[in-house]
């Protein structure tokens, strides 16, 4: 028996019984790439959702610290606008809800949940943008407040240094208050910026899920 390949798909077989044409199977495209992309998007959404929840909890904790801490009027009026706006509480709630919806939607990608996650991501983006503006203004106002605190210290009699605040001189209080507030507000700002970037990313992902044919996950 003599076999002579004619093309990549057809083989001519010559035998004593006659000539037979044998059709080989054409290699089918592998679904490995689609499976890898689907797994990548799934893991990515889970991680993003977890980070969003973490950022929301951190912003809430810092907001509680600011609301419960006792500072002189020089510093209290600096972050009073931030607290009155409700961002540390409503913003953190939006972050937690958005992250939770992303994780739930990834496990059950229904049309309702995808649209809900998209709305949550957009709301988180707006909340983070407002929080970024408020925190930037508050951080910028810390230095003038510290200068006012030090000027007020110069106008105080020496015997008032150790009686007004029990832990040390009034000058030391100004420095400690400015440093602690700067650290707290800076961490809140970092969490807010991170949340803004993640919210924009998830909004794009859920937009593709809802309004385009995306091979990563099917919407039911």
Residue windows where pLDDT falls under 50 for at least 5 positions = 1-7, 158-169, 213-220
Secondary structure tally, helices: 7
The overall strand count is: 3
Distance between the termini: 55 Å
Strand content: 5-15%
Q: What is the mean pLDDT?
A: 77
The main sheet orders its strands as 1-2-3
The 3D shape can be described as elongated
Assign the structural class, choosing from mainly alpha, mainly beta, alpha/beta, alpha+beta, or little secondary structure. Answer: mainly alpha
Order of helices and strands: EEEHHHHHHH
Gyration radius from CA atoms, angstroms:
31 Å
Please, how many domains?
1
Largest sheet: 3 strands, antiparallel
**Helical residue percent band:** over 70%
Organism: Propithecus coquereli (Coquerel's sifaka)
Transmembrane segments: 47-67, 87-105, 117-142, 181-207
InterPro entries: CD20-like, MS4A
Protein name: Membrane spanning 4-domains A6A
Q: How does this structure look, described?
A:
28% of the residues are buried. Helix 1 packs antiparallel against helix 3. The N terminus and C terminus are likely disordered. The protein contains 7 helices and 3 strands. A 3-stranded antiparallel sheet has the order 1-2-3, with no helix packed on it. It has 220 residues and is mainly α.
Chart the SSEs and their pairings:
Blueprint: E1 2-5, E2 10-15, E3 18-23, H1 32-68, H2 73-85, H3 87-107, H4 111-140, H5 142-154, H6 161-164, H7 170-211
Transmembrane segments: 47-67, 87-105, 117-142, 181-207
Family: Belongs to the MS4A family.
Pfam families: CD20
